[in-house]
Amino acid sequence: MYRVMPALAQVLVSMGLGGSAGMEWLFPYICIAVVAFVTTYLLVPAAKRLAIALGAVDYPSKRRINKVPTPRMGGVAVFAGLVAALALQVVGTWNWGWPSALIPSPTMPVNYYLLAAAFAIIFITGAIDDVVTLRPYAKLAGQIVAAAVAAAGGLAIGSIVNPLVPGSNIDLGWFSYPITIIYLVAYANIINLIDGLDGLATGISAIASLTMFSFSILAGRVDAAALSIALFGACLAFLRFNFHPATIFLGDSGALTLGFALGTVSLLSVSRTAALTSLLIPLIVAGVPIIDTLAAIVRRKRAHISIGQADKGHIQHRLIQEGFDQRQAVLLIYAWCIMLSVGATIINQVTIGPRVVIFLVLLVCSVAFAMRLHLFEPVLRHHYNPKTHKDELVTPDDPAFSKEERDAEAEREHRREERREELERIKNHLRDNTGEKQHRP
User: Fold this and answer.
1) Alpha helices of 287-398 — where are they, by DSSP H?
2) Is residue 396 a contact partner of residue 378, using CB atoms and an 8 Å limit?
3) What phi and psi values does residue 383 have, to the nearest 5 degrees?
4) What is the sign of the dihedral through the CA atoms of 58, 63, 66 and 67?
5) How many helices (H) and strands (E) does the chain have?
6) Which pLDDT value is given to residue 161?
7) By CB neighbour count within 10 A (0-12 exposed, 13-18 middle, 19+ buried), where does 434 fall?
8) Rg of the Cα trace of the chain?
9) pLDDT tens, 182-223?
10) Backbone phi, then psi, for 379, in 5-degree steps?
11) pLDDT value for 207
12) pLDDT tens by residue, 260-308
């Protein structure tokens, strides 16, 4: 490595990428991305063999879109790419004068050893799930432990700028730790939940990480910039094998690691006292998986089923049902993500008035698209089967689904009628009271 880097520097200089003073700052990040890319690319075949040897293979089924058995431990290659890239960052700091990624912000003193341990925990949790399929609560426990270790290491927002009282802050106190834990666990899971089409979660993570890299550079956070550009390089390399037709899947080892990394970058890029805008921007960048997760919760609640119950109502499923093939569906979602990322980038550069307008435009467009795809409509319904005398979950393919939908609509209409009658009674009561007051001497 010591011999390769000077040679790489000479190549980039000859290409005009490292010769000018204005580009010198970019050179370390190019190297980090390249090492993450190369490491991930070279290790994907080994990850495939490991997955097959351990039985971590997704076989075709009603719930899965893949038509052939596909190994699912791609996270091994992605995680190795991140480790190699960040190791290079440390070596570059020691030997070539690169900016150090191990100097935390004075406003957020992060213990990088604990942060590294948190990444190891989230990756191991996902890897174990890829092999033996953990129970949901066991997997969630691993995610919580990883997030708690990161929060204990200082990755937490202590206060938020009070938007109602200029110059004041809202101190979160000890609440900053559970809030950080929930935030990181949620970020890890939104990427995991949207990992339903070839290349979808990987591509979304690549777009989000590149966008967050620009925010990290503007914020002067070398640690966040190094992690985000390493993430971009690893995702780009893995996409070569993961785009349709995929020969390997991320698995939970990859999806949870990507989501956890994006959540970490978003927190590293802000100060311990954060403005609402700085907290909102990473959520806009990850808007597509967030909307998909929110829609899943809403439609499952509407159907009175557990929010943990898997269904085929996610964005990718709806697009396939609309007639798009896998590539078209993924590219359309990429375009949606890019729109949100561009909007977030503009929001980061303008004043409060345009920020609100741009945010509302992005929100309206995203909600309209979600409604167009019927993301909030249930795709599972409870149905009592008189033959088996059991409560079953039925899909739109089952004739009983239409009956259950009609019954649900009738029930909603009945509740609406009851509310109208109640409002009418209240109006009449108020009218009678008003009349009595007017007739009193």
Assistant:
1) 287-302, 315-321, 326-347, 352-372
2) no
3) -145, 130
4) positive
5) 16, 7
6) 67
7) exposed
8) 25
9) 999 999 998 988 888 889 999 999 999 999 999 888 888 889
10) -120, 5
11) 95
12) 999 999 888 875 545 566 677 888 888 888 898 898 888 888 888 877 7
- Which sign, positive or negative, has the C-alpha torsion 266, 215, 39, 190? positive
Q: Which amino acid is at 349?
A: Q
d(CA 44, CA 57): 15
- More confident position, 51 or 433: 51
As a residue count, the chain comes to 441
Of residues 21, 26, 162, the one with CA closest to residue 99: 26
Instruction: Give me the pLDDT at residue 6, please.
Output: 44
Query: Is the bond preceding 245 in cis, omega lying within 30 degrees of 0?
Result: yes
Residue type, 133: T
Block residue for tokens 């697009």 = 319
Phi-psi region of 219 (alpha: psi -120 to 50; beta: other; left: phi over 0): alpha
User: What is the rounded CA–CA span in Å between residue 234 and residue 31?
Assistant: 12
Distance separating alpha carbons of residues 378 and 297, to the nearest angstrom: 10
- Percentages of the chain per state (helix, strand, coil), in multiples of 5: 70, 5, 25
**Do 193 and 289 meet the contact criterion of CB atoms below 8 Å apart?**
yes
- Domain extent listing, the chain: 4-379, 382-439
- Which range has the top average pLDDT, 30-44, 97-111, 168-182, 410-424? 30-44
Give the closest residue to 190 by CA, choosing from 204, 210, 206, 177: 204
* % residues pLDDT > 90 (the chain): 41
Helix runs in 166-249, H state only: 176-193, 200-219, 222-242
Q: How confident is the model at residue 16 (pLDDT cuts 50, 70, 90)?
A: very low
Single out the residue of 144, 152, 151 nearest to residue 189, CA to CA: 144
- What does the pLDDT look like over 382-400, one tens digit per residue? 776 677 767 777 777 677 7
- Name residues whose C-beta falls within 8 Å of residue 249's C-beta, 6 or more positions apart in sequence: 58, 66, 70, 71, 72, 74, 195, 242
Report in angstroms the alpha-carbon separations of 272 from 19, 99, 104, 220. Answer: 36, 21, 11, 14
Q: State how far the Cα of 392 lies from the Cα of 384, in Å rounded to an integer.
A: 6
**Residue 384, SS3 per DSSP:** strand
